[in-house]
Amino acid sequence: MERRSVLAMGAAGAVAVVAGGLGAAAPAFAQTGGRGAKPVSGDPQSLRALGAQINLPIGSALTPQDITQWPQISGGQFSVVTGANAMKWETVEPARGQYNWTDADQLMAFAHANHQLVRGHTLLWHNQIPAWLTSGVADGSITTNQLWGLLEQHIFTEVGRYRGRIWQWDVANEFFTDGNPSSLNPDDWWIKALGPTVVPKAFQWAHQADPGALLFYNDYNITGEDGTNAKHNAVYDWVRQLQDSGVPIHGVGTQAHLDTQYGFDPQRFQQDLEHFGSLGLKVAVTEADVRTFVDSPQTQVPTDSLAQFAQPFEYAAMLEAAISVPAVISFTVWGFTDADSWVPGVFTGEGAACIYDVNQQPKQAYYSMQKALELAHGAPRRAAPPRA
Ligand code: G3I
Fold first, then answer.
1. pLDDT 10s digits, 173-210
2. DSSP sequence for 143-181
3. pTM of the predicted model, to two decimals?
4. What is 47-374's CATH topology?
5. What are the residue boundaries of the structural domains of the chain, listed by start?
6. Looking at ligand 1, which residue's alpha carbon is closest to its atom 43?
7. Residues belonging to the active site
């Protein structure tokens, strides 16, 4: 395992209307922008309102708990939302042929009610695929041909269900190895099962299912987070090949999971965003957070006193880099509250990665993002995002 590898290990609730009233019919998204951001009624100092001034949607991953328990933050602070787990295959088809759209529909309804754009996440990933699928492939009861058919059906069913209502889809997620050099991972579950053509095929099917959605490749450590550009370079070359062979890929999402123990190079981060943008692609920061060592998973008080400086600095530096690169079309944090962050469950001893604490109080990291947006008047002009 790489020392600096960031991720080495790898219902319908009440729909609250927070930022505006129930709006017009769901939009269809053109790939080149939209009709202009709808003015947000609500706190002019919210992240979403400040982001709207520079046409940069600010987002969060949301869990069902975020939607039902903290709708004021979920709806009031963000103008683009991602289901933390709601749209993953194991969630939407827990038993073969039996769909459960509860969480995904809840997210879509909440987004619609609050004039939020949606990032769909994710169609093709080695993780959180249903047990019936993995066990069927393992025991041979699902053949290779059947697996191709099941994947095609999954993509057409899910993308088709929300056609015209998803702004960006993370079509494929985390297909590259950590380490230097990096490459398409030959041990990835999908690559082993179907070979490397599975990725372009997924993009083609997603495009057919919703020609208006922006289709993204999403990964971590691809903007220098591990201290190198190995994975960035590998993904850059591969994406360029996909483009050259006519695959409908429109963007690259950098997850941007940081950890204070490894430091952070904002210049490299910005250069890498620009480099992806130089391919003519959209770029999105899709899962930003900054974890650190904490006292306990419950209270998540940082144990290193320097974390109180590092975390706000790194959040602001990521956002400032995104602001200054016109190809970046959205900036999303991976959950806003430490109360339901993924970090303590995966990185033992770490946490406090979000911009609100375990009691949903904004932290310095929140204020640093707010300040970065307030000071962004000289930001390059970007096209208005679609109207939600
Ligand atoms: O749904 C079950 C529940 O029935 C059970 O009681 C509970 C007990 O642990 O587990 C629940 O499933 C959990 C699931 O989240 C839903 O809460 C899984 O254990 C847990 O592993 C899973 O974690 C998710 C993780 O992806 C899985 O890799 C996180 O919530 C989610 O935030 C995280 O998101 C990923 C992105 O999709 C891709 N990039 C990395 C990012 C962080 O890992």
1. 999 999 999 999 999 999 999 999 999 999 999 999 99
2. -HHHHHHHHHHHHHHHHHHTTTT-SEEEEEE--B-SSSS
3. 0.91
4. TIM Barrel (3.20.20)
5. 47-374
6. 342
7. 174, 287
